[in-house]
Task: inverse folding
């Protein structure tokens, strides 16, 4: 079997090759790594491959999927949980096997959310830069205790519940909202509607998928409903928030602080070195001018444990396809089973 890996970085190669050695398929798997993202311009790189492996910013629209099918690709493996970039109906119509990594290390993303909160709250990023310049003044570095604050968790899946446990451990009051609240949440927090959560929370952390109903869920109305001076954290998907509305809320001092690991237009920026380039995204550049905004480049998932689990699950999904059996990680709605490779 041959699999083309798109948007491949050195760390992807390291962990996928490790998983390939540890979980060998009959006949072996030849991995071809491409730094290019999957798109109509790069799809020909998948020629003669049985499968493609893609990440969050690869394009999986109907036209790309059709091209993959014509090239002989029969399996699309997402090394991530979200699949908002996938045309599910087209994948089902084309009979493509599509599987994802629904859970790899919930604690990795939840811990990164906490790191963003602590960094922004206690200004440790600014203190680090000051001390390296010999400036030990504390003016401008005043923070507040996390203990006793009310934290609102939007989305109570595995990552959201990991965040709940972490913030509860810091002595925070926990509010949560989700269409399906887990039974175990009642022991640590109170389930409330989103408007009530926004109005009462000192910190709001987003842990939900990008769906039609969650697109720009944090818009101007939601920001106006938030507790004045609250902190907003997004480690899920960039399009959960309306960035232009966020900028206006920051300028008006309604939003006290923003920490994001994702950005709606990140596909042109993240996972690459642009330090010698001029970044033409004016909205993103405007965000960076605020001293109360912290941005990281989609690294919430990036731990050794998570990368190993992502690679292992990806190879397990490929094994399902090769064996022609159903896959527990198949993307809902695709309805595809594995196709035995002759």
Result:
């Amino acid at each position: 079997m041959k699999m083309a890996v798109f948007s491949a970085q050195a760390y992807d190669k390291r962990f996928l090759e490790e998983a390939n050695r540890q979980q060998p398929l009959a006949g072996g798997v030849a991995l071809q790594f491409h730094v290019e993202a999957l798109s109509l311009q790069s799809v020909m790189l998948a020629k003669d491959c049985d499968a493609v492996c893609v990440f969050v910013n690869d394009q999986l629209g109907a036209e790309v999927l059709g091209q993959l099918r014509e090239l002989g690709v029969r399996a699309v493996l997402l090394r991530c949980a979200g699949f908002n970039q996938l045309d599910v109906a087209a994948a089902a119509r084309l009979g493509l096997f599509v599987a994802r990594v629904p859970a790899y290390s919930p604690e990795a993303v939840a811990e990164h959310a906490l790191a963003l909160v602590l960094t922004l709250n206690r200004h440790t990023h600014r203190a680090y830069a000051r001390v390296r310049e010999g400036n030990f003044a504390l003016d401008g570095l005043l923070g507040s205790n996390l203990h006793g604050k009310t934290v609102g968790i939007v989305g109570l899946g595995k990552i959201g519940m990991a965040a709940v446990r972490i913030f509860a451990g810091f002595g925070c009051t926990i509010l949560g909202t989700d269409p399906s609240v887990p039974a175990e949440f009642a022991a640590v927090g109170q389930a409330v509607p989103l408007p009530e959560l926004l109005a009462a929370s000192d910190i709001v952390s987003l842990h939900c998928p990008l769906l039609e109903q969650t697109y720009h869920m944090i818009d101007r109305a939601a920001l106006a409903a938030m507790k004045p001076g609250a902190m907003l954290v997004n480690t899920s998907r960039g399009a959960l928030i309306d960035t232009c509305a966020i900028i206006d809320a920051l300028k008006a001092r309604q939003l006290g602080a923003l920490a994001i690991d994702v950005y709606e237009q990140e596909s042109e920026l993240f996972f690459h070195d642009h330090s010698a380039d001029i970044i033409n995204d004016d909205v993103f550049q405007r965000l960076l001018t605020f001293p109360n905004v912290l941005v990281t480049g989609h690294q919430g998932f990036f731990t050794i444990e998570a990368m190993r689990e992502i690679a292992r699950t990806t190879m397990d999904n490929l094994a399902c396809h090769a064996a022609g059996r159903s896959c527990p990680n198949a993307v809902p709605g695709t309805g595809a089973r594995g196709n035995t490779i002759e």
Observations:
- The first helix runs from residue 10 to 22.
